[in-house]
Amino acid sequence: MSEAPVILITGASSGIGAATAKLFGLRGYRVVLAARRLERLQELEQEIEEAGGEALSVDTDLNDLDQIQALVKKTLKEYGQVDVLLNNAGFGRTKWLEELDPQKDINLQIQVNLNAVIQMTRALLPHMIERKAGHIINMGSMAGFVATPTYTVYAATKHGVRGFADALRREVGVWGIKVSTIYPGGVKTEFGSHTEAKRKTGITTPKSLQLSAEDVAQTVWSVSQRPRRTVIIPWVLRLGAWLDFFAPWLNDWIIERTFTRPERGL
Ligand SMILES: NC(=O)c1ccc[n+]([C@@H]2O[C@H](COP(=O)([O-])OP(=O)(O)OC[C@H]3O[C@@H](n4cnc5c(N)ncnc54)[C@H](OP(=O)(O)O)[C@@H]3O)[C@@H](O)[C@H]2O)c1
Fold first, then answer.
1. Whole-model pTM?
2. Does the beta carbon of 15 lie inside 6 Å of ligand 1?
3. Which member of 86, 105, 114, 134 has the greatest number of CB atoms within 10 A?
C-alpha cells in the first residue's frame, strides 16, 4: 500500500474543495473526494491522476448519516488512513429569517454546515485516536465571527463550527491530534448561486477583499503544514471580528442604517 498521506475533503465537487483537492493531489497526497455530484468528482479524479496524483471519488450526501459512515468506511478500506480531514462542504441561504423555508433552508443548512461537520469528525475520530495523529481542518466563515442580517442560520452554523472546533481541540490535543478552522471572507465560487439572495442595496464584498478558491486552498495547505487554531483571511477582516467583539453596538448601528433599513424599504 502507498505511504502517501491522505486528505479527505467534503464538498470536493466545486469551489474551495475542488481547488484544495487539486493542490493536495499535486503535492503528493492521496485525495478522497466527497460530494453528491459524482460526475464532477470523477472528472476531478481524472485530472488529479493525469497530473500524477491519486484520488478516490465517493458519492456522498451529507444529509444522510449512513452515507457519512459509509464514506469513512470506504476511505479506510481503500487507503487505510486519513491524515487530514477537511470539513468543507456547506451552503448559505441568505434571506430574511421569516422567508426561509423551515426544511430546505433551515434544517438542511444546519445539517450540512454543522451537524455533518460533527458527524464526519465523530466517525473518523476513533481512527485518529488509535494512530495518535491526524488533523481536522474546518471551513468556517467570517460569519462565524460577525453575524450579519440575512445570514441568521448560516451565521448560527458557522458560530457552531467555531465552538465545536475550539472544544474538540481541547479534547484531542492530548493525543497530538490538531484542530484548525479557517474563516474566509467572500470567495468567488458557486456559493453565490445557491444563496437565493435578492438585494436592493447591491452591497457585496469589495473586489479588493474577494478571495479565489485557489487562495483558500493555499491557506488550507499552509495550515496543514503549520497547524494553527484560527486563521481569518484576508488578514484585514480580523479588524471586523475585533470591532464586533469590543463594540457590537457600533456594528448594530452601522448595519441597520446601511443594510437593514434600505433592504427592507424603511
Ligand atoms: N464562497 C464564499 O464566499 C465562502 C466564504 C466563507 C466560507 N465559505 C465556506 O466554504 C465552504 C465551501 O464553499 P464554496 O464557496 O466552495 O461553495 P461551492 O462551490 O458551492 O461548494 C460547496 C460544496 O459543498 C457541497 N455540498 C453541498 N451540500 C451538500 C450535501 N448535502 N452533501 C454533500 N456535499 C454537499 C457541494 O457539492 P454537491 O453539490 O456536489 O453535493 C460543493 O462541493 C462552505 O463551507 C462555505 O460555507 C464560502
1. 0.97
2. yes
3. 86
